[in-house]
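Quick check before the chapter quiz. The format below is the same one you will see on the exam, so make sure you can read both the input and the output lines.
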Amino acid sequence: MILQIASVIIFLFVSLSLFFRTACPLGVKVAGSLLVLIVSMKYAIYHFLGGAFFSPELPRYFLLVMEALYGSLIMLFFLLLLFDLYLAGNWILGHSGIPVPQRIPKGAIKCGLVGIALCLGIWGTWESVRVPTPKTVELHVPNLPQGLEGTRIVQLSDLHIGPLLKKDWLAEVVQRTNALKPDIIAMTGDYVDGHVNHIAGELSPLADLNARYGVYGVTGNHEYYWNATEWIKALEKLQVNILNNEHKTIAINDHTLVIAGIPDLVADRYGFEPANLPKALYGAPESLRLLLSHQPKNAREYLEDVDIQLSGHTHGGLMFFLRPLIARFNNGFVSNLYADGGKNIYVSPGTGLWNGFSSRIGVPSEITLLVLKKSVQDPQ
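Here is the expected output.
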């Protein structure tokens, strides 16, 4: 509902700014506004034609076109807003006696902005569906035991296998992940958009993930939209160890690493046990503790009991200018590494992307290789 309301506001502003405040024939104004209205109604179209808002059963090429056009519309909204603010500033300065440009080719400039927005929308959709390249991040940990130095953890997050991202894409992600020779693979939720009986086969490449000490994961909010009980069973059959308010201890070079996991914060809304970190850590030894939690918003609280938290959910803000807004809803966390008093929080921008907003502008997806390093502040 919120996304649809926002889409209506975007439609009204773009139509007013682009057509009804520009000298052009009435037919162009009506046809252009109708086209903008259709694109802005993307979510309603998905619901009524595809049968589901989160996972519409529509041809992939149709979804790609709609996502590119919708991404273009978002970009056009912000470009027109900036241009209108510039014009308003010119008007204010001009009436204050300050010399400003008098003849501005508004129509030509707005046509140019449309072209720029279309290019960015197409590029953003391509960025959202391409197979991501690996990114290496060092996690500096105080008092890290020598035996854990160099431990390689690959994080995959927000795969969103469903209408857009499918088996062939996932198989390439698995191949690139295995090529990193991980010690541990950590999966931080939102694997799917669809029911088990419809798309379980699309996740089969996950069975080929290969890590020296295993593959571990937690649920994201989207698993609860599609019957989390069935998806947890399906993922465990693919050798993904789902940690549901529990932990595992891993012996690495005579040292112990604790990897804990909690369910997504929406779990209790769907009748599941809520996230409970004390329960997840109950009985865990006093050693390096790694927490998997889909949403990062409670990280500062959780870091009182763990050393490292890996999360996803935010998709990195989707578009660079939306990052502050997305961060606001996640207690300041949006993507990349946050170091706090020797503790590390890494928020993945996502390996895939939800088909409901498949556009990345300046926020590339990634397969994240996290390497444990002893903090440079540690005494030698």
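If your answer matched, good. The longest strand covers residues 134-141.
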